[in-house]
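Researcher: Good morning. I'm working through a list of sequences from a screen, and I'd like to move beyond sequence-only analysis. For each chain I'm collecting a predicted structure so we can compare shapes side by side. This is the next one on the list. No need for commentary yet; just the structure.
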Amino acid sequence: MIGMGKYRSIGLLCLTCVLVLTGCALHRNTAGGRELSDGERKKFEYFYLEAERQKALGYDDAAFDLMSRAVEIDTTSAAARFFLAPYYLRLGAYEQARDGLRYAAERYPDNYWYNVVYANFSQQSGQHDEAIRIWSRLLEQNPDKSEINSALAEAYTAKGDLKSAVACYDSLELSMGMMAPITIEKLKLYGYMGDKEAMVNEAEKLQRTFPQNTDYMRLLGDIYLEAGRDSSALAMYDRALTLEPENGYVYLSKAGYYEKKGDSIAYNNEIRNALINRYIDVNTKLGIFSSYIVDLMKKKKELNRVDSLFTEMLEQYPQEEPVHRLFGMYLSSRKEFARAEEQYAIATDLAPSNPENWLRLTSLYLYQEKYADVIRVGKRAIQYVPDQKDIYMYVAVASAQTQSYAEALEMLETGLTYVDESDNGTKSFFYGQMGDVYHSSGDREKAYAMYDQALLYNASNVPVLNNYSYFLATEGRDLDKAERMSAQTVKAEPDNATYLDTYAWIFFKKGDYSLARLYMKNALDKSEEPSAELYEHYGDILFMLGEVDEAVEYWQKALDLGSESAEILKQKIEQKKYIEK
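Model: Good morning. Structure tokens for this chain:
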């Protein structure tokens, strides 16, 4: 029996099978090269017709079994073998599926649907020569069916025989007349072949056939531009605008012309003409605008134009959420955070069920350490998009920073419920954050339990390994375990000053001051702006190595940077000795 869970969609093949079988008569066949007896014929017909009935009722297991019995009686039945092909395909038995389809197509070469299905199957499975053979046979039998010519062209294209594919489209054009879709396909093929002159000829022929169509004028202009015939391109664009001055897409093409010429003023003007054009839909405009902004930012010039263009866009589309979102993204990239916040806030009001705007707004507040705003907006976001785990994380981080540890843990626990069961990396991240919150709240045992849980899901979670090992070191506890974990972080990121500092501090706690000095010096060298903690740790190590004056020098550097342990540092400096915190 075929398990229903094994079935896969087979698209056109399945649909075509239905078409064939609903109109298929039972052919008179022979069993093993001999005539079927009356009894055999009746059994075959029973199994065949009952299989069709079960299939119509949706009982595919039964249909497959019954038709298999029919084929056992008469292995030469094209209809029965064709019937079984999609079932074999769903089971992954591709050779059996192909054999059934090929047998039906070759036994009845004039059966249109048998051959269409087999040709499609051959083409989709990469048997391009076989597909071409069958499509060509079908075309000889059905010269009036344009779709066969198109399918044959696709088969030639897939094989890489582009000239033959063009010839198919030429035949199609002869029978159907000049049509833009056919010309577009031919242009693609000539483009692959690098034949720009042929592209020009095709586009000119299309434009001559439809002399008043401004879209075809623009297409011809674009091809002229690609072929290096710039003056002809501009003339064609201007001709199109004379006939249809509101065609915004032509302005866009003209912008490409001026960009190629290096005329930035004219380029900007044409972009503006496209953006304010009321006949271009807003999504297309946003695509144009996005590309334009990226281009200007790469060139780092004329960015003042962007603000004015956004003003015009917002006047046209004050209620279009994507426009406000794009403006917010642009302003964020310019570090104009207050204005970006305003645009994202409007976007969330216009489309509260879109999580992207909430995520951008809360992350923007978090980046600026506006923790109260993160909590306020994040809680509001949860009402509209409660399944966004990242928002729970942002609110948890902000709550922890404001020492609202219970709320932070609640957010992390709730957010964890929205993590996919198989997403071990994200689960590890959440448990690691819980460990940090518990540690900040003073509950070290729960913190370490959460870190252990995080490492169960991802043993290579480097931030967890670092925090866990550092906290153990500060307590002077499980130092061998701390060393093993810290070594993983240094191996993973050998240039990370924070991880090197942790590794060095573990050696300090173990009394291996030479190794501690080696790694702490490395941490200082890797840090562009060493922290007060790095300087203090290095001073502590130097003191233990007997380099008292140098130790005092680094303690003073730590004090000058505004260390959180200023009082102890002052005592160390005054007494010229190490004092444990």
